[in-house]
Specification:
Elements: H1 2-20, E1 23-24, E2 28-29, H2 35-60, H3 68-81, H4 83-92
Antiparallel strand pairs: 1-2
Length: 97
């Protein structure tokens, strides 16, 4: 149960990092981090969290094979988790901050 809570917390943090941080992957400084860079970073974080989830599942038993519906659902859930960071970046934040 603890793994599920930690994975959910990690997914929520990873979904918001591209919109909160001005650096690419938290390391590389980009002069103007436009939406394309944020979307790329968001996709990489989605794959990383999915890989961690797969590793946790493989520690317990043989990982269950998934169809495309599973990946579409998890992508939609990851998008919902990123909504607070997206709103903060593009709608709520005042220009110049």
């Amino acid at each position: 149960m603890l793994e599920v809570i930690l994975l959910g917390t990690l997914a929520a943090l990873a979904a918001n990092v591209p919109f909160v941080s001005g650096r690419l992957f938290g390391v590389l400084r980009v002069a103007d981090k436009h939406f394309g860079w944020q979307l790329l970073e968001w996709a990489v974080y989605y794959l990383a969290v999915g890989g961690i989830a797969w590793l946790l599942e493989s520690r317990l038993a043989t990982p269950h094979t998934q169809n495309w519906q599973f990946y579409v659902t998890t992508l939609a859930m990851f998008a919902v988790l990123s909504w607070p960071g997206f709103v903060w970046r593009f709608f709520w934040r005042k220009p110049g901050l």
